[in-house]
Every structure is written in C-alpha cells, then in structure tokens.
Design brief:
Number of helices: 10
Strand content: 5-15%
Distance between the termini: 97 Å
Strand order of the largest sheet: 2-1-4-3
Helix content: 40-55%
Radius of gyration: 41 Å
Structural class: alpha+beta
Largest sheet: 4 strands, mixed
Number of strands: 6
Length: 394
Amino acid sequence: RRAVIVVWKCQGHASLPLSPQPALLVCRLVQHLASADPPAAQAMAALQTIDLTAVFTASSFKKKAVATNVAQQARDSAASAKKVKSFVFFEVEILDAKTKEQLCFLDKVEPNATVGEIKSMFHKSYPQWYPARQSIRLDPKGKCVRDEEVLQTLPVGTTATFYFKDLGSQVGWTTVFLTEYAGPLFIYLLFYSRLPFIYEEEYEFSTSPHTVVHLAGFCHSFHYVKRLIETLFVHRFSHGTMPLRNTIKNCFYYWGFTAWLAYFINHPLYTPPLYGDQQVNLALGTFVVCELGNFSIHITLRNLRSEGSKMRKIPKPTKNPFTWLFFFVSCPNYTYEVGSWIGFTIMTQCLPVGLFTLIGFFQMTVWAKGKHHMYLKEFKDYPTLRMPIIPFLL
C-alpha cells in the first residue's frame, strides 16, 4: 500500500521543507504557496475544500477509526464506573420490636425502595406475615412508617434498622363496615318486630300505637342503609385493612348499643316524648338535614382524589350548601354525624340513645383532632379559621 503524494511545481521558488506527516505536509504546502505565489494561493482558495480522504491511505483511516473506537470505549467505561461508584446500596436489618431479635437481613436494597417494597421482601422470608399485617417502625415504641416512605429519605444510615410488630389478622375495610353496619340494621328490626322471647308473650309480633316508634325505626334503618350504600359505592379507603380484634370490638360496640336502645324504644311500655309532635318534628328535621349534610361531605371527599391515588388535598366547599361547613371545621362529616344522633336522641327521648350519642361524640372528636393536626402539619396554607369538629369552639 503506497501513500499518495501531491507534488506542486514551484519554479524559481525555494524548496518546500519535507515532513514525515502527510497532514502537516499539506498545511506547509498551502502556507508556502501563500507566501511565494499569491496568485496561485488565490486560485487554490477559490477551489472547493480539499477532501483529505483522497490523500491518506485506507490503512491510515482504519487506524484512526480503531483509535477513536478504543477512546470512546474507554470514556464509556469510565462513565459507567463513575455511575456504579456513585450508586450506594442499603443494608436493611429488621428486628423484633419486643425481643430485639434479628428477624431478617436484606442486602443490596436500592436507596429508592419504599417501605412497602421492604415489607414485600420481608414477606418472602416470613410468609405468615403478609404486608398488611406488618408494622414497620424506626423505634420499638414509635409510630408505624407509611408504605409510601422512601428508604433514602428516612433518618437512617446505609445500614438501616427497622423494628417489626405483628398487627394480627387483618380484615378489609369494606368487610369491616359491612359487618359493623349490617348488624345494627337487622338487630333493630328484630326488636321492632317484637319477636318471641324478647318481650312478654302477649306482645309477640305486636306493633306500637305510637307514631314516634315507627318513625324512629325508619330513621334508624335509613341511617344504616345509607352507611352500607356509602361503603359500597362512595368511600375510598386510604388504608386497606383493619386488625380483626379491632373489628370484633367495633361490632360489639355497635351491635350491643343497638340492642340496648332498640329494646327500650320498641318496648310495649315506651312513652312518647314530653313535648309530643312538636318535639318529634323538630328532631326529625334535624335528623334529615344532618343526614343529607353527612352524605354531601362524603361525596365531596370522594371527589377529592381519584381511585387508587393517595395524594392528599385540602377539602374545600363546593356549590352544595351542605359543604359550606368546610369554611369552619376540618371534619364536617363528623359534625353532621353527631347532629343526626342528637336529633334521634331528641326524637326518642331515650337515655341509651343519649349515651350512644355522647360516646360517639367523644370518639369522633378524637378522630377530628387527629385529622385537623395532620392537615395543619401537611399544608402550610391550611385555613386558620377551621376548627376540628365544632365551629369556633372545638
């Protein structure tokens, strides 16, 4: 393979110094022409750009291509090594919250892994503890870390230590509410029908002569039918399950109170309220308004986020007047719920109903305060006028 040499005849001019490098030779040739023969240089400048590929041999270009490829591979290897070096895996140690005994050690956990993914990894080692049953904490007596939390954002080092607590058997929220609400609906109707062995034999399958008894039965049934419909078609639950033992306690509370208050309201010796129809009508109006308000708030909360989303937003009033209570309280659904039971208490003038309303108010106040503080912590622009459950007071 012979190199191509370009020869330029310059009569009467100094000879061109030689160079072992062809590219440098061409450059010196052009410089020599510019100084020794300006007309020739101008003529050369008028020509198209010289393609040096016609000057160098194929072997030269092959060597250049190989060198370029090697250099590119070296740069890619260096970048890859730098990327691997900057990617740090975590080691996750899971201990028993009571005994501090190590249950599991997870190696090479990616820093962007969520707590939910760590629960799934832990579940592979202990199949009996499915993710919904696990409570993962940073401190043995601390709060449960949410599944959405990312490992590298938690206050832990590259060797993270978590504490596990078994929450026990879990029940889905839909099943929980259907069980809690279907029970009171049927239990109340058993007393309303005056089945045998509930009251004296002479009153079996009899009906009360008082209108308020039948009205109370309708209102009580309407309330729990509404709850069942909301459970099936309205509510979207942020948490998937509830511990089975809590479900049993809740059912005992709802079912037990229902049997107690239904026994007295439907008793053959029950007497109507002190102020008669005027008291009943006022209480009925309060009950209906609060039930509509409670349903309106539940619809508004449902529309606040799409199905499957866990993104939180500030609940705000809509064109529906029942939602305007959002201007003053953080949890108007609880406000309306308490209002419904106050109306039912005034309507029936029954002590067990009053106790059920009072206990429910205390419990809902605790829930409302918790949600209110969560809103204040999560949203910097949260309305300062709002109170948890009672406007301007509580």
